[in-house]
């Protein structure tokens, strides 16, 4: 089989660079702050899709509860922003409305911005480490793990709604002002916010990409195909699974935290099953095997939802559902799989002509 | 405490009715059917439609819901599921897509306003039971749960179809070698499970209002029951009773949401130590 340009690492990095260059120059082309905010939100969704692709595409661990990390990260950030707007010694208004007189102990650290942001990222990661560790050591995998994440997700949603005095229940937390870092306020409707999300997306995606190409990534990818064989080769499968799961959790938490900065709002809707599943749909339609395609999947689906969705709101979900079924049935690799196939065909066409009298490329030899 | 125990039985019967169809689909075919909640929803709408447009009495609507939803399940199996048996994760995703389509399709057909199912008058009263006042309909659901267990047991252990299903579950190749059409068995099993979800919908449509999104809450709950039970009928029954009673007792001590949270956590811990569930159905699949 001839080289498929899809698998060429140099070309892959070029593609990543090109896409990020395109996304990066957007603020230079427009000064519509509303549009920038919306696009930055898509960036956050893209990051969430990347985090799913890292876990699912590379490691084969389907996680239907990525909203756990996203929501916890968003809550952590919103709590930090809320406390920034409070005068020392006061409590957020919704707590007073719910008959609380002093700040609950777990809110105290959020007085400190740095500590608050650190907690927003670390609490979900730690949660993933513990939960993932428990599950993977017990060799719970595949669909069972997916169901378990779903269970935890809906349990969390229930708790956040029930803890009305501490979380403001279904209404959620809406900090009155934007995030202030080192004395500068980040206006969510500005190019600054856009650049921040862009930088985060860039760093996370490139780190994840490097990781999948590393030795660690190789073991993780082997897990997807045959965990039993990896175990027999002497690797501690549970450790690798837990690490890649926790790492994807960290990324999702970062996405959630940025989401809170951009929207100045967080509610238990982030813990809704539907939201987490949409993230899986983005990655599946774009192509779970590729971080870049998963991200593009999020852009496309969310973009289409806000533009086409407004025009025919009712049929949109129908279209989304059907296209998802079609992708799963006929195109398990998503659009990434399609690109791989087409590029492979192209290469073998050209190669076939060049090596007409040499070795003919074995058709259908590779899977 | 006695109140909580009696209420727990009622909750358990609801859990079991919701999970029984899924137990069959998952336990025999190994399909992770995320559209199960939507099958329940369709059962409720089928009951509503039969009652409103054809004036059928409620008790006749229940078998109708079984047939209608079973037929829909059969079609979905033929069009989609049968291609995915060897890809469990993809089945999960594809059936999620199916559930999106079913919810939206129902919303477009019936509108998103709530519908109500009329129940026979004698079921709308309350019955005193050991000092607890329980709605007669909840007693009916308990009886229905017992009847459904009996029905499934009969079909699986006393009919030709049941023998074939069990043979295919144990060893598909060997069953095929004995001339059993395993594809057909899977199709009918899926349809049977879907039909049972339809019956669940006919019952739940009375307990709650009928909405296109009413099914979404049942899926996770039903799955936890099935996974805890291990995919076997008795396993699901025991798991339902255990979780139903715990839900009722914890809810008395704390409140509803924390009870739910606590049970979910307990199930996760339980599965950590016994991943195969209470009673594991087929040893070979996992």
List the helices and strands and how they pair.
The complex is a heterodimer of chains A (367) and B (286).
Chain A: H1 9-24, H2 26-29, H3 33-58, H4 67-84, H5 93-97, H6 113-137, H7 142-162, H8 164-167, E1 180-181, E2 184-185, H9 191-213, H10 215-225, H11 227-232, H12 237-263, H13 273-286, H14 291-311, H15 313-330, H16 334-354
Antiparallel strand pairs in A: 1-2
Helix pairs in contact in A: 1-9, 3-9, 3-12, 3-13, 3-14, 4-6, 4-12, 6-12, 9-10, 9-12, 10-12, 13-14, 14-15
Chain B: H1 2-29, H2 36-54, H3 58-79, H4 88-110, E1 126-129, E2 132-135, H5 136-158, H6 160-170, H7 172-177, H8 182-207, H9 216-229, H10 233-253, H11 256-273
Antiparallel strand pairs in B: 1-2
State the order of secondary-structure elements of chain B, H for helix, E for strand. Answer: HHHHEEHHHHHHH
Give the strand line-up of the largest sheet of chain B: 1-2
Q: What characteristic shape of chain A results from the CA principal axes? A: globular
Tell me which protein chains meet in the greatest interface and how many residues each side has: A-B, 41 and 41 residues
- Number of separate strands of chain B: 2
Provide the low-confidence segments of chain A as ranges: 355-367
């Amino acid at each position: 089989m001839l080289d498929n340009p899809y698998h060429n690492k140099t070309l892959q990095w070029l593609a990543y660079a090109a896409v990020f260059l395109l996304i990066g120059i957007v603020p230079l082309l427009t000064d519509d702050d509303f549009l920038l905010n919306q696009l930055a939100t898509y960036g956050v969704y893209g990051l969430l899709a990347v985090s799913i692709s890292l876990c699912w595409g590379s490691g084969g661990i389907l996680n239907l509860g990525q909203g756990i990390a996203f929501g916890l990260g968003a809550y952590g950030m919103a709590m930090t922003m809320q406390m920034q707007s409070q005068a020392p010694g006061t409590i957020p208004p919704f707590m007073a409305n719910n008959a609380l007189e002093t700040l609950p102990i777990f809110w105290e650290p959020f007085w400190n911005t740095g500590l608050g942001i650190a907690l927003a990222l670390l609490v979900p990661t730690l949660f993933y480490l513990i939960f993932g560790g428990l599950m993977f050591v017990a060799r719970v995998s595949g669909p069972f793990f997916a169901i378990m994440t779903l269970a935890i997700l809906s349990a969390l949603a229930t708790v956040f709604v029930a803890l009305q005095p501490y979380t403001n229940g279904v209404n959620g937390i809406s900090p009155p002002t934007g995030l202030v870092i080192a004395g500068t306020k980040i206006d969510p409707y500005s190019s600054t916010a856009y650049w921040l999300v862009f930088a985060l997306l860039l760093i996370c995606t490139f780190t994840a990409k490097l990781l999948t190409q590393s030795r660690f990534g190789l073991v993780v990818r082997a897990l997807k195909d045959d965990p039993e064989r990896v175990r027999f080769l002497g690797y501690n499968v549970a450790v690798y699974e837990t690490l890649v799961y926790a790492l994807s959790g960290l990324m999702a938490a970062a996405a959630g935290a940025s989401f809170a900065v951009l929207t100045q709002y967080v509610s238990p809707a982030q813990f809704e099953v539907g939201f987490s599943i949409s993230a899986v749909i983005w990655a599946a339609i774009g192509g779970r095997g590729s971080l870049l395609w998963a991200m593009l999947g999020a852009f496309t689906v969310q973009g289409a939802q806000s533009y086409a969705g407004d025009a025919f709101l009712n049929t949109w979900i129908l279209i989304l559902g059907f296209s998802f079924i079609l992708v799963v049935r006929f195109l398990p690799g998503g659009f990434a799989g399609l690109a791989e196939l087409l590029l492979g065909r192209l290469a073998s066409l050209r190669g076939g002509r060049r090596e007409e009298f040499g070795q003919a490329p074995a058709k259908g030899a590779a899977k | 405490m006695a109140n909580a125990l009696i209420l727990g039985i009622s909750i358990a019967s609801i859990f079991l009715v919701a999970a029984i169809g899924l137990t069959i689909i998952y336990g025999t075919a190994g399909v992770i059917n995320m559209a199960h909640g939507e099958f329940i929803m369709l059962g409720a709408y089928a009951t509503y439609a039969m009652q409103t447009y054809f004036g059928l009495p409620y008790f006749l609507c229940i078998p109708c819901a079984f047939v209608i939803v079973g037929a829909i399940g059969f079609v979905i199996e033929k069009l989609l599921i049968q291609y995915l048996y060897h890809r469990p994760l993809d089945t999960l995703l594809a059936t999620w897509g199916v559930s999106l389509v079913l919810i939206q399709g129902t919303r477009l057909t019936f509108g998103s306003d709530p519908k109500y199912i009329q129940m026979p008058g004698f079921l709308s009263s309350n019955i005193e039971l050991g000092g607890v006042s329980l709605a007669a309909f909840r007693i009916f659901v308990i009886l229905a749960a017992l009847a459904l267990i009996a029905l499934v047991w009969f079909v699986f252990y006393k009919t030709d179809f049941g023998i074939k299903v069990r043979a295919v579950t144990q060893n598909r190749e060997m069953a095929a070698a004995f001339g059993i059409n395993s594809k057909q068995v899977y199709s009918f099993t899926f349809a049977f499970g879907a039909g049972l979800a339809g019956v669940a919908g006919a019952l739940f449509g009375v307990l709650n209002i009928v909405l296109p999104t009413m099914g979404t809450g049942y899926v996770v709950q039903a799955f936890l029951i099935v996974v805890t039970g291990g995919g076997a009928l008795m396993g699901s029954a025991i798991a339902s009773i255990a979780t139903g009673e715990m839900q009722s007792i914890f809810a008395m001590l704390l409140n509803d949401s924390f009870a739910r949270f606590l049970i979910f956590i307990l199930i996760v811990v339980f599965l950590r130590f016994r991943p195969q569930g209470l009673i594991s159905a087929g040893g070979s699949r996992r």
